[in-house]
Amino acid sequence: MFIVAPWPAAVHGSPLTDNEQVRKDIFDWIKAWESKDINRYMSHYHPAFRADGKDYPEWGKRKKKVVQTSRPDPRKDFPHMDCHG
Predict the structure, then answer these.
(1) Domain housing 42
(2) Which pLDDT tens digit goes with each residue over 42-52?
(3) Total number of domains in the chain
(4) Per residue in 70-79, pLDDT tens?
């Protein structure tokens, strides 16, 4: 399990560190899923992404169907993550 928490606000003018950027991206991925924003959720995947025998468009269709038929719950959907925020 790993923990995902919101990233601290960057100091004005300071770029995010690599770790902060990864945390930001993962947190946004989770929030997109939770809010059923499938376009934002899929923007976190590379077009060459494949999983469970599905390519990027098929994966997007599958996830769209999931969010249309259920209430996304990051704690249940991503049990290997502890989502704080």
Answers:
(1) 24-83
(2) 999 999 999 98
(3) 1
(4) 887 766 766 6
28 part of a folded domain = yes
Measured distance CA(29)–CA(66) in Å, rounded: 16
Identify whether the C-beta of residue 41 lies closer than 8 Å to the C-beta of residue 33.
yes
Task: Answer yes or no: is 17 within a domain.
Answer: no
DSSP 52: T
Residue recorded with tokens 């959907």: 77
The token pair at 65 is 């169907």
Closest C-alpha to 77, from 43, 36, 48:
36
Whole-structure pTM value: 0.71
Cβ neighbours of residue 19 closer than 8 Å, sequence gap 6 or more: none
How many Cα neighbours within 13 Å face the side chain of 3? 5
